[in-house]
Amino acid sequence: MGRGKQQQRKWRRKVVLICIGLLGVALIADLLWASSSSSTSLLLFPYKSSFNTNYSATKEVISNHNNNNKDKKDGVHGRILSKTFADLAGPQLQWQKMADSPVPRLDGAAIQINDQLFVFAGYGTIDLVHSHVDVYNFSSNTWGPSFDMPKQMAHSHLGMVTDGRFIYIVTGQYGPQCRGPTARTFVLDTLTKKWQDMPPLPLPRYAPATQLWRGRLHVMGGSKEDRYTPALDHWSIAVKDGTVLDKEWRTEIPIPRGGPHRSCIVVDDRLYVIGGQEGDFMAKPNSPIFKCSRRNEVVYSDVYMLDDEMKWKVLPPMPKPDSHIEFAWVVVNNSIKHPDTKKMILVGEVFQFQLDTLKWAVVGKLPYRVKTTLVGFWDGWLYFTSGQRDRGPDDPTPKKVIGEMWRTKLSLPLS
Ligand SMILES: *[C@@H]1O[C@H](CO)[C@@H](O)[C@H](O)[C@H]1NC(C)=O
Ligand SMILES: *[C@@H]1O[C@H](CO)[C@@H](O)[C@H](O)[C@H]1NC(C)=O
Ligand SMILES: *[C@@H]1O[C@H](CO)[C@@H](O)[C@H](O)[C@H]1NC(C)=O
Q1: What is the Cα 187 distance to its own chain's centre?
Q2: Regions in the chain scoring below 50 on pLDDT
Q3: Is the CB of 410 under 6 A from ligand 3?
Q4: Going by C-beta distance under 8 Å and a sequence separation of 6 or more, which residues neighbour residue 72?
Q5: Strands 282-283 and 16-21
Q6: Which pLDDT score, from 0 to 100, does residue 364 have?
Q7: Which ligand is nearest to the CA of 278?
Q8: So what's the architecture of 3-409 in CATH?
Q9: DSSP code string of 359-400
Q10: Which residues contact 2 (CB under 8 A, 6 or more apart)?
Q11: Is 354 in the pocket of ligand 3 (CB under 6 A)?
């Protein structure tokens, strides 16, 4: 409805997509290590960290995030960041610390509906996963009562999207450490807090790009069942108001590059897939607890777009490679009336992608670098909560898993 008109208008407006980059951090770290001596410590948690390093696939790094090996393993002092992943200059934003979430979490998921941010699942530690939903109210700036997730729902690496009332949740990792994925999918009615099953995905995936587009729930890429191999598959199923209209998932045009942890958004009837990575931690063979062990990872900055033609188009890449950004973006000013900006937030930096000019910019910095953070935007404020933060301004390696909530008043340069 009115799509043509909308599209014309679109080119008159300024469309801005802002991404907060979170991942950069870890990445950085690795690069160095490859060349500096003792490598390991950067990852207390099995996430993100090796980017573009082509780092030998056998190294095992992970340990419990709360154990004390870190200092012992820390070989990172005095390193120099690779240019690819170095911090980018950007305006300092004034950040205000808000109430901590009820639990710290890494690799959780979040969906904003009006003034509520629903924050799902995630790791508390590498051996403990959450199975509930916390809810933040942007109007009262408080955390409300939590509620349970279905027992069969994945705890991390979820694909998730909302139509404004119903939240569609697909696949993901079931359990802690580097356990296997489930193909189970669910829909949550956020008004009644009732959950329903949906048909399972044809195959389970880790952190596939997930969006609603033209009446269908689309699920693309992610990692395959071994947690590592990038998947190119793209499936969709018709949905309306929380109800699935098809019997089964339909196969769609494969994505040009596979892998998990990308941002996926729909703006003006176009579907964008941004950043991500190939490879990830895998379960150590024969480990009874599916202990995570590090494998080679390549984080990338690719941007792809699907439109009417149903052919993937390549758009200008992000200012630096970025992954774990599936819930680190927001679309701002997404109304026909005040359509000035559309933003996506994603690594220490807040990136803006202006969709009319296809230009990327760094519009600010976070109070610290953080990965897998969860983002919302309300009443001019940009919020982020959770994830794994760095060790300090001079040390971009990952440290603590946080539940902190911060916000900043955003007024974006739109040129
Ligand atoms: C990684 O390094 C190996 C050996 O140096 C090389 O053969 C391979 O092509 C590299 N892979 C990538 C993705 O750069
Ligand atoms: C959020 O807080 C506002 C202000 O206190 C309140 O009016 C509103 O009902 C709350 N929203 C929900 C969903 O509880
Ligand atoms: C969004 O649009 C409104 C109205 O046009 C404007 O006042 C506001 O500054 C915009 N928000 C941002 C973050 O630029």
Answers
A1: 19
A2: 1-16, 22-81, 334-346, 414-415
A3: yes
A4: none
A5: unpaired
A6: 81
A7: 1
A8: 6 Propeller (2.120)
A9: EEEEEEE-SS-EES-EEEEETTEEEEEEEEEEEETTEEEEEE
A10: none
A11: no
